[in-house]
Amino acid sequence: MATEVEGVLPKSIHEVVTTSKVLVVGAGGIGCELLKNLVLTGFKDIHVVDLDTIEVSNLNRQFLFRKEHVGRPKAIVAKESALVFNPNVNITAYHDSITEAKYDVSFFKQFSVVMNALDNLAARSHVNRMCLAADLPLIESASAGFKGNVTCHKKGLSECYNCTDRPRQKTFPGCTIRNTPSEPIHCIVWAKHLFNQLFGLADEDQDVSPDSADPEAIGDAGKAALESQSEKERISTREWARSLDYDSKKLFQKFFHDDIKYLLSMSNLWVTRRAPTPLDIDDLPDAVASSSSAAAAASTVLKDQRIWSIAECEEIFRESINGLQKEFLGGNAEPLIWDKDDDLAMNFVTACSNIRCHVFGIQQKSRFDTKAMAGNIIPAIASTNAIVAGLIVMTSFNVLRQQYDKIRTLYVSDREANRRKELFAMERLAPPNPKCYVCRDKPELGLKADLDKLTIRILKEKVLQNTLNMIAPDVELEGKGTILLSSEEGESDEIIDKLLTDFAIVNGTRLVCDDFLQNYQITITIVEMKEEDKENVRNKEETIFEVVGDLTQLNPKAEETNAASPKPSTSNGNKQSASVGNGDNEDELCIIEETKDDDYLELIEPTDENVSLMDTSTPPKNFKRPYEGTPVANVPVKKRRVLPAPDPNNTLDSDVVQID
Amino acid sequence: MVTVEDRQERDGLLTEDEAALYDRQLRLWGVDAQRRLISSRILIIGLGGLGAELAKNIILGGVKSVTLMDDSVVTEVDAASQFLVSREAVGKNRAEASVVNARKLNPMVKVDADSSNPDDKPEKFFEDFSVIVATNCTKKQILSLNRIARINNIKFFAADVFGFTSFMFSDLGEHQYRKEIVTQSTKTLPESTKVIEGVSRFAPFQDLLNLDWSLDELSKRAKKTNPAFFALFVLLDFIEEKNRRPDPFKREADYLELLNRRDAYVERHGISKEKVPDELFTDVFGAIAPVCAITGGVVSQEVVKAVSHKDVPLVNLFVYNPVDGTGYVEDFAG
C-alpha cells in the first residue's frame, strides 16, 4: 500500500486515506478496479455491496473473478481477491441489494464517502437519496465502451444525481409491436412478449396478437366489440398453446400465417406501408436474405455471428419450444423468466424475431446482435473501467480533504482528445437545481392524469416507483390523514386496483408521498387531464399520466415565451425530440447513464401500452425529463455536456460499434 | 476450454469459448479487431505498478502472447501499485514474481517472464513482437528501443508513472486505421455504418527530446502547451543524469533538485517560470495505484488500436496532470 511507504503520498492525503471508511456500491466492472485501487492506495476500511453473481461474460474485464468463481457472489469473491493484495485491510462484503431496508440512513452515516460503481438508474437514484439523507458526499461513475464519467454529488454544494434528467427506457407503442413493426427491435420485443405469453409471467400489457383496436386501422364504430374480442383471444393464448400440447407447427401457423393474414385484413394499415407476407410452414425459404455483408461472411465459424435462414429459424423455433415446454411443464410449473444467457430462451427470441422480420420485410439480425438488443447489452472493457476507477480515487482525495473547489466532473471521451487537448474533458460541478424533485427543500410535483383510469397500483408502480424511484412508498391525503397506500406488506392489497377517484381524489387533491427508508417526502398535486387529452391518450395509447412539475412555482407566462423561442445555447442540452429514444443521440454521447453490465437492465422493454413514461409529444413543464424540449425560465440553464470534438465526424460516433 | 497450446494452432480464428469470454468487447471493437488481437505478441518491459496494469488489460483483452521483461527486483515501493506480486516477493525478480498471477487472468493467453535487461538483448530478439511497451526505462533505453521498433515495423510505446503524474509516448510509424461511424436511424433512414480510412504519422522519441521551445515556431505553441509536458522533460532529465527515479525516501532533496532543474529548463527554452509551477514536482515519488490505472487504461487502449488498426490513435504524447486532474495529448509530430 502506498501508505506503507513514507513519502509516496503527501501528508494530507496519507491522513485521510488511513482514517476514512469507504462504501463501494457495486463489485462489477468499475467495482473490481476500484477495490484494487483502494486497497493498494492504503484505504483501511472498505465496505462493498453487490447483489450479483459472477458470469462468464464478466471475466474479460472483472479481473478479480476467474472461471472457477462463476456462479458465486461478486461482493464475496471481490473481497477475497482484493485481500490478497493486502491481507491487512478490512473489507466487509455484503451480497445484497443496496435498496434493502437494513441499509438505512444510520448504516450510511458510518462512512466518510460513498462510491457508486452501479449499472442502473434505480439503484443510483436510491443511493443518491441515502447520501442526501445522511449528508454524505457521493462519487458517481459510469462506463460504456470507450466512454465513462466520474462526478461528485454533495448536498447543498453541487447538483444531486436526480437534479438532471436521466434517459429512460425506450418505449414502443403497442400497435407498432403488435401490428406494424418496422425495425428489428420491434420484432425482438414482440418475441420476448411471446415468450412471456407462452412460458413466462403472462402480462396483459404484452399482448402479441394483432391489435384490432389500432386507431389507425379502423374508425370508432365497432371498436368496442373488436376490443372485447381481442380481450378474449389474449387471455387464451397460453391456454390455447397448452391445449395443443405446444404443437410447434400449429403455433407457427398461427403466429406467422393466420395472425398475419388477419393483419392484412386491416387494410388501412398497409396503405403507406409494405404489407407483410404470411409464411407457409411447408414452403420456407432456406436461403438467407441479407447475409452478403463481408463481416457476416467472414465470421461464419461462429454460429452467433451468422444470420439464420428462415428454414433454420423454424427448426430452432421448434427445438426451443420443445425444450422450453419441458422446462415449463416439467418443473414446478413456475413461470419461466426470460434470460438472455439461457440458450433456449435466447434461441427462441432469435428465431421468432427473425421470422417476424422476414414476414415484414425487415432486415434480419444474427443471434449475437439480437442478444445485444434483447438483453440490452452494453459493451464493456477493462481499460475504460480502469481509467474510471482511477479517476474516482483521484476525486476521492479532494472529497476527503473537502477541497470541493478542485473537483470536476470528468468525461472519458471517445478515444480522442478534445479541442483543449484534454483526454478527459472537465466540467465544473453544477450547483443544485432549485427545482429538483429530490434535493430541494419540500419537493412538490404535479401529476396530470386521466382520473378515470388512474389506480393506486399505477400511482405506486408507474409513478412513485418507476418514475420517482421510490422503493417502498406510503401515500396519504394531505390534511386528512387518510392512508391511500401503505408500505407495510399486504396492507394495501385490497384497494390497490381501485381508482383514486374512489377515495374522493379530485382535481387539486394533494398527496403526501413518503419513502421512510430514503428519508424522502414529496407532495403531489393531482391535476385532472383535459377531456381532449384523454381522448388523445386513448387513441394513441399514450400515457394516462404525466409528471408536470411543481405547480406552486408554475409561471405560465415565462414558459410560453420560452417555448416559443428556445435559447440556442440550450438546444443541445434540452432538445425536443419527436421520436422516442432514437432521435437525440448527442446527449447519449456524454451523459452516460447505464454502465458496464446489462445483467439486470431492461432498457428497451416497452412499458405497457397505456402508461408510457416517455410521452414526448407533450413535454412536461418544469419537471425535466430526458428528451423534453421546453426550457423553463427560472431553471438555471445547464451547460451543454457535449464534449467539443476535434473531428466533426466524431460527434456522430455512437456508443456501440456495429459489427455487421 | 481452449488451452494456450490450442490457441497457438488456431491463429486468427475465434472459438465459441473465446466468443463467450470476449463477448462484451467483441460488441465494442468487433470480430476482426479481436482476430488481430489474438494473433499479436506483446512485449511489456518494466513490471512496476504501470506494467502490472498493462499486463492485466492486455491479457484480459486476449492477445496471443505477452512477455513480461524486467531485470529488477520487487521493492517495497511496488506495494503501492503492483498487484501482480505478492507481499512476500520483495527481493525477487519482478517479471518472474508477476507471471503466475498474470497467467491466471486469462488462460487463453501465453504469458512468459524474462529477467534480462532489454539492453542485453540482440536486436533480433525484438523482431518477433507486434508491439513493444517500455515502462520504467531511461531516455537512452527508450531511444534505442524506439529505433529498433522503427526499423522493424513494430508498434512502439513508452510510458511511466512518477507518483501522481505519468506519460505515454507512442510511435506507430505510418499507421493506417479504419474508423466506423455509426449514424443513428432517423424517420426515413435506418441506422447505418460508414467506414472512414486514415493515416496517422508519428515523430520518433528523438524528435521530442530535441524540441527547442525557444525557436520562433515553437515559442508560440509553448504558451498553449500544458505545463505537465515541460515537467515531464525535466523529470526525464533528472532520471537520466542521476541514473535513478525520484526517491520517496529523499522526498525533500529530490523536490528541490527538480525545482533547480525546472529553473534551468525554462531558462534554456525561453519559457516563463510561472508556466511550470512548483506543485507539479511535489508528488512524483513511487507510483500510486489510481494513476497507474488511468495510464495503464490509456496505453492499453492505444495498444488495441495499434494492433487492430481500428480507430484513430493518440498522437503522440500523453501526460496526466494531477494538479488539473486530467490528461492531455499533444501532437509533436506535425
Automatic annotation (TrEMBL), chain A:
GO terms for biological process: protein sumoylation. Keywords: ATP-binding, Membrane, Metal-binding, Nucleotide-binding, Nucleus, Transferase, Transmembrane, Transmembrane helix, Ubl conjugation pathway, Zinc. Heterodimer. GO terms for molecular function: ATP binding; metal ion binding; SUMO activating enzyme activity; transferase activity. The chain crosses the membrane at residues 377-400. Belongs to the ubiquitin-activating E1 family. InterPro entries: ThiF/MoeB/HesA, ThiF_NAD_FAD-bd, UAE_UbL_dom, Uba2, UBA_E1_SCCH, UBQ-activ_enz_E1_Cys_AS. GO terms for cellular component: cytoplasm; SUMO activating enzyme complex. This is SUMO-activating enzyme subunit. Pathway: Protein modification; protein sumoylation. Residues 15-436 form the THIF-type NAD/FAD binding fold domain. Residues 206-230, 555-586, 611-660 are annotated as: Disordered. Residues 447-531 form the Ubiquitin/SUMO-activating enzyme ubiquitin-like domain. It comes from Allacma fusca. Residues 562-582, 611-620 have a biased composition (Polar residues). Its main location: nucleus. Coiled coil: none annotated. Residues 331-371 form the Ubiquitin-activating enzyme SCCH domain. It is found in: Nucleus. The active site is at C175 (glycyl thioester intermediate).
UniProtKB/TrEMBL annotation, chain B:
It comes from Allacma fusca. Residues 22-321 form the THIF-type NAD/FAD binding fold domain. One of its GO terms (biological process) is protein sumoylation. One of its GO terms (molecular function) is SUMO activating enzyme activity. InterPro entries: ThiF/MoeB/HesA, ThiF_NAD_FAD-bd. The lineage of its organism: Eukaryota, Metazoa, Ecdysozoa, Arthropoda, Hexapoda. This is THIF-type NAD/FAD binding fold domain-containing protein. Pfam families: ThiF. One of its GO terms (cellular component) is SUMO activating enzyme complex.
